[in-house]
Amino acid sequence: MAAGSEVSSHLTLEATAAGNQGQRVKPFTPEKAKEIIMSLQQPAIFCNMVFDWPARHWTAKHLSEVLHGKQIRFRMGMKNTDTGKPVPQFETACSYVEATLEEFLTWNCDQSSDSGPFKDYDHSKFWAYADYKYFVSLFEDKTDIFQDVIWSDFGFPGRNGQESTLWIGSLGAHTPCHLDSYGCNLVFQVQGRKRWHLFPPEDTPFLYPTRIPYEESSVFSKINIVNPDLKRFPQFQKARRHTVTLSPGQVLFVPRHWWHYVESIDPVTVSINSWIELEEDHLARVEEAITRMLVCALKTAEDPHNTRAWLNPTEVEETSHEVNCHYLNGAVAAFLDHYKTSKGVEIQALRTSKENLQKERMEMEGTHGQNGTMAAIKQEAASLFGPDLVPVTLRSKETPSEGGGIFESDGKDFVFKDGKHFAKLFCADRQQTMSTSDNAGVDQMASNSAPAPSQTFVSTDDLLDCLVNPQVTRMVALLLLQGKSCDSNR
């Protein structure tokens, strides 16, 4: 036997022995996983990272036993409209039910009943979603269960279920298309599958952002992602949709400010997520405080009693102008305090992209000579793509139908309908500048016909869509912080 064959056989025997002992090695160390998360600029799926988490077995049935008798709020929505096509529904358009998980599972099995919390909702016509359930509230008397979620495996020591939220839904349950103002997102799929539609931050002008209904830290899209009205929203054709089906045991990484629409495609789905704080959040909090002040000021002046029309149910109540001023001052003070030893707020605030922040860290640590540029870091992160780190790919433009031109696998591979495989990394052009995206509004006006007289009326919501557009609030926040920085230097 050749020496090479002996080595190969020896390694095979060792691997078999390790497997027999139930030993599995995770593909990334916590340090490497965090490095990937903090440098990767596109969504990706981590595989084989949570096989030993106790939460891996948190099916809805198991959780119903753990939370026996506990009342949970479910959001109820229609599966299809009169046209027979699904339409994403904002939380303000949904009804709500207080029920236990046992009652949800009974209803979800189509065991109809003339009594109980779901009696008014035909299972064939409605979906139910227990979304956004914080562990600290859901398991307030069972805090030991926090340890079943081990985000420290991704490089965040001490992070567990205490910083997590739970999502339980039926077939058709969905989250409206939105972006999160704060942090990046790690999503662990426990039971069932969810389909994710994601769009990069540069496509924001094409997603027609709105802050009505208002919810802190969520910027919604006006578009029906699954069945868009391109006559009304023509710029959406330019958006670059990335799609993936997330399966049990996988963890999806959603980078900062990536838009996402999420739908449950199995009878029961269970997910756990955690938002990871980022350096950019200091500025984002100032932007959110400005947004809250403007939205509350204009909407309450319009009709102080009409809060349900514009306030998302996730917001407990409208806040007074005095309280909103307090929030804004607190956010500004926290930002200035955080950067008081930096090179100046004017420079620091303008250099809040992940690339520049990492570049500054390398400069301060004197490592830029060793690591080269950020392009080298991105290339290194991309080189890790493989069976254990799968990029979420851009959907083919060749087939614009909902089915797309891609067969989605379990996250290990992607193939076109003709059988051809994607390259290891699908590199989309991400060099779009702000000046280019600013032209979207001009293009839209040019592409639309002259509006009818009834369309020329400007509502409060129309004005707010302009005033609290993410690009506008970013500019206002920077101007405000620069002014305060000058004041503090007097």
Low-pLDDT residue spans? 1-21, 346-371, 398-438
Overall strand count: 17
Q: Average pLDDT value? A: 80
What is the number of helices?
A: 14
Distance between the termini: 81 Å
- Kindly state the percentage of residues in helix: 25-40%
Query: How would a textbook summarize the main sheet?
Result: 9 strands, antiparallel
Shape: globular
Secondary structural class: alpha+beta
| Rg, nearest Å | 24 Å
Placed side by side, the strands forming the largest sheet appear as 3-2-4-5-14-7-12-1-15
What is the beta-strand fraction? 15-25%
Pfam families: Cupin_8
Protein name: HSPB1-associated protein 1
Subcellular location: Cytoplasm
Main location: cytoplasm
Descriptive tags:
490 residues, nine-stranded antiparallel beta sheet, 14 helices, disordered N terminus, JmjC_dom, Cupin_8, HSPB1-associated_protein_1, cytoplasm, HSPB1-associated protein 1
Structure description:
The chain is an alpha+beta fold. It contains 14 helices and 17 strands. The protein has helices at residues 3-20, 30-39, 60-66, 101-108, 135-138, 281-302, 321-338, 345-350, 354-365, 368-371, 374-382, 434-447, 460-467, 470-488, and strands at 44-46, 72-78, 95-99, 126-134, 165-170, 174-180, 184-191, 194-199, 209-210, 218-221, 242-246, 251-254, 259-264, 268-276, 389-391, 406-408, 414-416. The strands form three sheets. It has a nine-stranded antiparallel beta sheet. A six-stranded antiparallel beta sheet has the order 9-10-6-13-8-11, with no helix packed on it. A hairpin with a 7-residue loop joins strand 9 (209-210) and strand 10 (218-221). Helix 6 runs antiparallel to helix 7 and helix 6 (281-302) crosses helix 14. The longest helix has 22 residues, at 281-302. The protein starts with a helix and ends with a helix.
